[in-house]
Amino acid sequence: MHKALLGACLVAALLTAATQAQREGGQARVFVEYMPANTITVHPGQKVPATFTFRVKEGYHINSNKPLLEELIPTQVMFTGSGELTVSKLQYPAGELTSFPFDPTQKLSVYSGDVVVRADVSVPASAKPGSVTVQGELKYQACDNNACYPPQKLPISFNVKIEEGARK
Fold first, then answer.
1. Domain locations in the chain as residue ranges
2. Residue 93: phi, psi to the nearest 5?
């Protein structure tokens, strides 16, 4: 019963937000900013750590990567193929357990403020020197204390410089 009520509230909130977005000229609001990563330098055959920082605008939160309810949309970072380069082992921070006015008895796992996702970037030993721009996206659903908004995709990118020769 509790989950059904929460689910109904979320659907109603989504419909309200979608209608409001249409009234605002169809322009989707942006709730999260990508703080571009510095260029990552890697040698052939090497794996290096990378961090990707996202800033959730004040007054909003997004579901964590592991929301506590099935019907909630998880936050996910995904990268498209970049030739030989691999982005792997994405590590999301733990969500903050928070309750909201629409159901003060239910805690949800959310992110607010700065969210840092960690990963490994690697290239094979046969990689040629040069620069590569890696494209990706952050998929998220933003909410405030009263409503959730339609899911969004935020395009992201970062640069990788592959240096000559194996690192000694």
1. 2-162
2. -70, 160
Rounded to a whole number of angstroms, the CA Rg of the chain reads 19
Instruction: Give mean pLDDT, residues 67-86.
Output: 90
Global confidence as pTM = 0.81
Ramachandran sector of residue 140 (left: φ over 0; alpha: ψ -120 to 50; beta: rest): beta
The whole-number average pLDDT for the span 35-56 is 95
Give me the CATH topology for the region 2-162. Immunoglobulin-like (2.60.40)
CA angle (19 as vertex; 15, 22 as ends), nearest 5 = 140
